[in-house]
Automatic annotation (TrEMBL):
Family: Belongs to the aldo/keto reductase family.
Active site: residue positions: 54
Keywords of this entry: Oxidoreductase
Name recorded for this polypeptide: Aldo/keto reductase
Pfam families (UniProt xref): Aldo_ket_red (PF00248)
Organism: Seinonella peptonophila
PANTHER family: 2,5-DIKETO-D-GLUCONIC ACID REDUCTASE
Domain NADP-dependent oxidoreductase span(s) in chain numbering: 21-262
Keyword Mitochondrion: no
Top-level taxonomic group: Bacteria
Any one GO molecular function term: oxidoreductase activity
This protein's record includes keyword tRNA-binding: no
Annotated positions binding substrate: 112
Coiled-coil regions, chain positions: none
Length: 276
C-alpha cells in the first residue's frame, strides 16, 4: 500500500477512491462543517463523506469552495436517506443533494440503510444515475451479506462500495471476505469507535509501543486490512493527526492482537434491526 495521503484504491469500475477521507456526521451546518472541510482539504485530504440526513451538504459545498481545491480533484460522497428510497424518490433526492452540494456530479452515491422492500428500487435509480454519468460510482451502506445477495438477484451492477461500522470490536470478518470476493470495496464508518478506544488497554499499549496516538493505530489497522476509512472530526489538530498514518506499519502480530478484540459490538444500529 502506498504511503501517502493521496494514495487510493481502485474500485471495480476503474474509479480511484482515496483510502482516507473526512467524515462529517454530526458536524453542524454552517461554520463548523465549513471549517472542517476547508481545513481537511488544505491539509491534503481529497475525499469528503456526507449524507442528506446529516443536514450539512450546503456547508460541505461552502467548505470546498473556501479551500480553493478544484472540484475535479475531490472525491465527494453523499447518501440517500431512508425516507427517500424508491425509484423516482431516489432520483429526486439525488437532484436535491446535488443542488445543496453545488455540483454537477457525485463521485460516490450510497444507499444509507437497507430498508426492506425499498432498497432494490433505489438501487435501480442509482444504476440509472451511473449510466447517465451523473455519478462516477455507486454503492451501499450497512448491508449484510443477505442484503447484498438480494441486490445481486435484481441488479445489473454490483455495488462498488459497502460502507459499514468497522473497528476492532466489530471486525465483520465474513462480510469483509464476501465483499473482497465480489470486488466490493469495504469502507469503515465509526473507525474510532465513537471514542471508546480510550478505555481499551490493549489499544493504548500498542499506541505507546509505536509512539502514536490510539486513533492513528486504529486508522492504520484499517488501511492494513485494505479498508477505506473516514474518521470524523471538526478540530483541525485532530484532522491533521488523522493524516499521519502513512509513514509507519503495524506488525502482523499487532494486527492479530487488535483483531482478537472483536466482540461483535456495535456502537451504531444493527442493519437487521433499525427503526428509522
Amino acid at each position: 500500500m502506498s504511503k501517502e495521503l493521496t494514495s487510493s484504491t481502485t474500485l471495480h469500475n476503474g474509479v480511484k477512491m482515496p483510502w482516507l477521507g473526512l467524515g462529517v456526521w454530526k458536524s453542524r451546518e454552517g461554520g463548523e462543517v465549513e471549517k472542517a472541510v476547508e481545513s481537511a482539504l488544505k491539509l491534503g485530504y481529497r475525499s469528503i463523506d456526507t449524507a442528506r440526513i446529516y443536514e450539512n451538504e450546503s456547508g460541505v459545498s461552502r467548505g470546498i469552495e473556501a479551500s480553493g481545491v478544484a472540484r475535479k480533484d475531490i472525491f465527494l460522497t453523499t447518501k440517500v436517506w431512508n425516507t427517500d428510497l424508491g425509484y423516482e424518490e431516489t432520483l429526486r433526492a439525488f437532484e436535491d443533494s446535488k443542488k445543496r452540494l453545488q455540483t454537477d456530479y457525485l463521485d460516490l452515491y450510497l444507499i444509507h440503510w437497507p430498508v426492506e422492500n425499498k432498497f432494490v428500487d433505489a438501487w435501480k435509480a442509482l444504476e440509472k444515475l451511473y449510466e447517465t454519468g451523473e455519478v462516477r460510482a455507486i454503492g451501499v451502506c450497512n448491508f449484510h451479506i443477505h442484503h447484498l445477495k438480494t441486490l445481486e438477484n435484481h441488479a445489473n451492477l454490483a455495488p462498488m462500495v459497502n460502507q459499514v461500522e468497522f473497528h476492532p470490536y466489530l471486525t465483520q470478518t465474513e462480510l469483509r471476505a464476501y465483499c473482497e470476493q465480489h470486488q466490493i470495496q469495504f469502507e469503515a464508518w465509526s473507525p474510532l469507535m465513537q471514542g471508546n478506544f480510550l478505555k481499551d488497554e490493549t489499544i493504548l499499549s500498542i499506541a505507546d509501543k509505536y509512539q502514536r496516538t490510539p486513533a492513528q493505530i486504529l486508522l492504520r489497522w484499517d488501511l492494513q486490512h485494505n479498508v477505506v476509512t473516514i474518521p470524523k472530526s471538526v478540530r483541525e489538530d485532530r484532522i491533521k493527526e488523522n493524516t499521519q498514518i502513512f509513514d509507519f506499519e503495524l506488525t502482523q502480530a499487532d494486527i492479530d492482537i487488535l483483531d482478537q478484540l472483536n466482540r461483535d459490538q456495535r456502537f451504531g444500529a444493527d442493519p437487521d434491526n433499525f427503526n428509522f
